[in-house]
Amino acid sequence: MNNIVFLNGQFLPSNKATVSIFDRGFLYGDGLFETLRSYKGKPFALGLHLQRLCEGCRTIGIPLKLNKKYLFQCIYKLLKSNGLLKTDAYIRLTVTRGVDYGSLAPFALSKPTVAIIVKPLHEKIGQYQQKGIRAIFLNNRRSLPHIKSLNILPNVTGMMEAHKRKTQEGIFTDGNKILEGTITNIFISDGNGIKTPPVSDGILPGITRRLVIEIAKRERIKVTEASLTKGELKSCREAFLTNSIMEIAPLVKMENKLIGTGQVGAFTRRFQQEYKHMPLKQIIP
User: Fold this and answer.
1) pLDDT (tens digit, 9 = 90+) per residue, 71-121?
2) Is 159 left (phi over 0), alpha (psi -120 to 50) or beta?
3) For residue 93, what is the enclosing H or E element?
4) Same domain (yes/no): 116, 132
5) Residues 107 and 220 in one domain
6) Model's pTM, two decimal places?
7) Based on the structure, what is the number of domains in the chain?
8) Could you tell me the CATH number of the domain that includes residue 116?
9) Domain limits at 40?
10) What is the pLDDT of residues 185-203, one digit of tens each?
11) Dihedral over alpha carbons 128, 43, 196, 239 (to 10 degrees)
12) In a shared domain, residues 91 and 16
């Protein structure tokens, strides 16, 4: 697919967009990324994603200068150029430390590489939301979980293992403790509220996770952010997974055991419906 992409201030056909072999993102995975979703040409929660990206850049010392207005204009132009203004789309923003001819530690302060790609949503997303996801446990965890680093090899190999075992997601664990999925955050419910692992357990502070918690508080649904065990997950009434592209999808089977009835639970359905209203109202910056 030869669509139009954004690279360092230019809009180019994807087969013309190239980065240096000395780019530190290529050599070391030295960079960050964000994925978000647009709804009929409007990127959702762009401000929250940009805030997390900028905080991550400050953490690892990448001098990124990118404001929300300019980023919105770039994304809108990409969506228009690729015929995605009237549908929902996947957006990925990638930032690397840039080109540097040093060794592991950069020699000098280089100009960051900034790339944006957009593409149609995967056709299976709706299926996951309606029929649910099957997952396995992974005896591993994300590297640098508090930021969205390009260096996500544990996530890659974890998803490969999940697919090998005919499931759609792998759940990172630390002993008996549940952490997060390779591309998702996790929630469970006992019927009286929802529970999710705290960021302090070593998980990514997901944007959709944050919005689900905000919905729960607004709807006066009890939210508990506390460590989650394998036993709690296996015995809960229902569970669901969140990310910005998939939104909210029920987790219906863990390893070979059904979660609850193996169907979409009442809380999951309620959060799906409430979340769907957010992009329409554009109440999130």
Assistant:
1) 999 999 999 999 999 999 999 999 999 999 878 888 877 899 999 999 999
2) alpha
3) strand 88-96
4) no
5) no
6) 0.94
7) 2
8) 3.30.470.10
9) 4-121
10) 999 999 999 999 999 999 9
11) -20
12) yes
